[in-house]
Amino acid sequence: MNPPNNLSGKVVLITGASSGIGQATARYLAARGAQVSLAARRGKQLTQLVTDITQAGGQARAFVTDVSQRTQVEDLVRQTVEAFGQLDVVFNCAGVFLLSKLEDQRYAEWEQMLDVNLKGTFYMIGAALPYFKAQGSGHFINVSSIAGHFVYPTSAVYSATKFAVRALSEGLRQEVKPYNVRTTILSPGLVRTEINAHMSDKQAQAHMEKMARVAIEPLAVAQAVAYVLEQPAEVDINEIILRPTAQAA
User: Fold this and answer.
1) Per-residue pLDDT of the chain (249 residues; tens, 9 = 90+)
2) Domain limits at 57?
3) Which of these, 11, 15, 31, 68, is most buried using a 10 Å CB contact count?
4) How far apart, in Å, do the first and last CA atoms of the chain sit?
C-alpha cells in the first residue's frame, strides 16, 4: 500500500536550492504537490529552477538570499509566508565544503563554513520558529553530513560545523515538542554535486574527486526528505544517515 501524499499543499522553504541536493529536492517535492520557496545566492540558477518547476505544473518562488546574513534570512521567511500564506517545512540545505589541514591556517575558509553551515542554520531556525509556534506545527530538516559523525584528516573545521548542526538540532528537538514541531537531522555521505569544486586545497580536492566515483545522485537525498515529510503527524523521524553502498566510512 502506498503511503498517503502528505506533501500536497505543504509550503517547503529550501536553502541552497540553486544546485545539488537543494535543487533536486525542490524538483522532487514540487512534482509531488509541495509549494517550494527557493533560496540561494545565485539568482540566475534560481530563476531557471522556478521556470522549470512551474512549466511542469508545480508552484515555486525564488528569493536570492545569503543565509550567513541574519536580516536576509528573516526577510526570506517573511516573504515566503507572504507569498504562500503559510510555512510548513524548513529544509536547511545550504552548505560550504572546504577541506584543508589546520596547519594551513585558511581562516577565511573556516569562517565561511561557520557562517554558512552553522550560523545559517540557526538563523533559519530563529526566523521560522515563531511562525511554527503560532500555527502549532512545523518541521525543520537540517543537513549535517557523515562528517558530522566522523572526523577525517583535512575535515576538522568542516566536521566541527556539522557536529554542531547535530547538537543544535537535538537541542531544538527537545525544546519544540510543546509546539508540535518536528525535527530531522539528515547526514548524507558522498553525493554527486558541485560542492567539491570550490576547494582551494587542490590535494584535498583531488582526493574527494577520487572518492566521489562511488557517490550517489542528489535524487536519493531528495527521496529521503520526501519520506520524512510523508510520515503522519504523530511520527517524527529524528535522524537519517544515508551513503553509497560502496562507501566504507
Assistant:
1) 344 567 999 999 999 999 999 999 999 999 999 999 999 999 999 999 999 999 999 999 999 999 999 999 999 999 999 999 999 999 999 999 899 999 999 999 999 999 999 999 999 999 999 999 999 999 999 999 999 999 999 999 999 999 999 999 999 999 999 999 999 999 999 998 866 666 566 676 666 676 677 889 999 999 999 999 999 999 999 999 999 998 887
2) 11-241
3) 15
4) 34
Roughly what angle, to the nearest 10 degrees, separates helices 70-84 and 120-135? 40
Kindly report the CATH number assigned to the domain that includes residue 47: 3.40.50.720
Q: Is residue 25 part of a domain?
A: yes
Query: Does this model's pTM top 0.70?
Result: yes
Residues 100 and 194: beta-carbon distance below 8 Å: no
Q: Is 158 a catalytic residue?
A: yes
247 within a domain of the structure (yes/no):
no
Domain membership of residue 246 (yes or no) is no
Domain tally, the chain: 1
Identify the burial level of 82 via C-beta atoms within 10 angstroms of its C-beta, where 0-12 means exposed, 13-18 middle and 19 or more buried: exposed
237: left (phi over 0), alpha (psi -120 to 50) or beta: beta
Whether the CB-CB separation of 163 and 142 falls below 8 Å is answered with no
Q: Report how many helices (DSSP H) and strands (DSSP E) the chain contains, helices first.
A: 8, 7
Spatial distance between the Cα atoms of 161 and 83, rounded to a whole number of angstroms: 32
**Residues 169, 144 contacting (CB under 8 angstroms):** yes
Residue 6 lies in a domain: no
